[in-house]
């Protein structure tokens, strides 16, 4: 996550078939106090709209303008099993929506506009071919984002 300049990682991205998310909104491995774990996160409500550029650790080198809610009401358990319910906004809201999408098998390509999918079609095809051939994907630079991802 840190090596790729990410701020969140969902269980399936690490080969875990569990509804778990690890996050550090600072995106800094030296800031261990900022690391959080969300178990069984779910979105209970959404408000507002925000369209911002978003990247994904599962799709290196790719980014697109993705529509998300500006604020979400989330519920999850912490590492001690305590259920927490709270409203989050802006980057933290985007993090929850993005990572819960991963838990539900949804990627940013599923939320791209047709124009964005067309722009990234060659890279998507290359990644699909790598996956089918069981090849390790090529390392690509992280996309330049308007806000950290």
Backbone structural class: alpha+beta
What is the count of helical runs? 3
Distance between the termini: 10 Å
The topology string of helices and strands comes to EEEEEEEHHH
Average of per-residue pLDDT values: 89
The percentage of residues in β strands lies in 25-35%
- Cα gyration radius (Å): 15 Å
The helix content is: 10-25%
Number of strands: 7
Low-confidence stretches: 144-149
Shape annotation: globular
Strand order of the largest sheet: 1-2-3-6-7
Largest sheet: 5 strands, antiparallel
Notes on the structure:
The longest helix has 14 residues, at 90-103. Strands 1-2-3-6-7 form a five-stranded antiparallel β-sheet, covered by helices on one side. The chain contains three helices and seven strands; from the N terminus they run βββββββααα. Residues 144-149 have low confidence and may be disordered. 21% of the residues lie in helices and 32% in strands. A hairpin with a 7-residue loop joins β4 (50-55) and β5.
